[in-house]
């Protein structure tokens, strides 16, 4: 019987793409399948490997009535996950987190299937707090978490092979070579707040900077012109990071770990509202403490404030580049693949 791995995780591309990078590099002798929701992960994954859909519902902080259906959906999802796992009989389940991963992990635990998970943020989300109790190993992006639980292994973020490529392709990107280039990215879904402050001051920003702006799907309000380059989404983010001199964005695990891997200074605007657990602020604070990022509080954000902060930040770019030269940045993909393959070889 061949080796088999089930992947799960979803809700944002930050939960999906690390799985895809692992799937890309796992040996051809390993059969791969994915369990997820009907959300963003389905569109990405089902083109590549066998995809199974289960129900999923997210906890909405501060909205009691919206959460009443969670136990019923979770129970249904566990039953469906168990049925799929019995059919496939994988050697290991790899979970990248998000609410869709929880029923899969619970089902795997009841079937005594080994579970390896990964947490990208500085602190654990609710799903991964529960998964930590159930899994065999929990991989993390931040070394300081390693000492908090014997199951935790510091691997670092998971990137594709192509992400380490340092080649630059500027075709289709309008740049003034005399100006620094800012990559504005609000995460896989875009950031309405960042877009709202960027658009009104875009002409002033372009006086000082080249802008590459990832607006998110449906948010392309201003077409590219001069040294402003706007895109809803791009599939060559590694190349855009190579072009950029610094990044302006939210501080989700994806943007911050990618920027750090590419050794780019970060001007970060953490998402802070009652619907979040504060993970973005914790991520941003970690990188600020390392000297490679600066935080702008969302409550203080206006077009005028943004312009001034970006102008001031421009003077810090060389200092941050020097700090980066003394820091070790790693890709954890090979370590995670080794853990998965070792688990497969036990069976």
Describe the structure in your own words.
- The chain folds into two domains: 3-158 and 331-345, Rossmann fold (3-Layer(aba) Sandwich), CATH 3.40.50.2000; 163-324, Rossmann fold, CATH 3.40.50.
- Helices cover 38% and strands 16% of the residues.
- The protein has 13 helices and 13 strands.
- It has helices at 13-25, 40-45, 70-88, 101-110, 126-134, 192-198, 202-208, 237-243, 253-261, 279-289, 303-314, 317-324, 333-345; strands at 3-8, 30-36, 50-53, 92-95, 115-119, 137-140, 152-154, 181-185, 210-214, 228-231, 246-249, 266-268, 293-295.
- The strands form two sheets. It has a seven-stranded parallel β-sheet, with helices on both faces. A six-stranded parallel β-sheet has the order 10-9-8-11-12-13, sandwiched between helices.
- Helix 4 links the parallel strand 4 (92-95) and strand 5.
- The model has no long low-confidence stretch (mean pLDDT 90).
Key phrases:
2 domains; six-stranded parallel sheet; alpha/beta; Rossmann fold
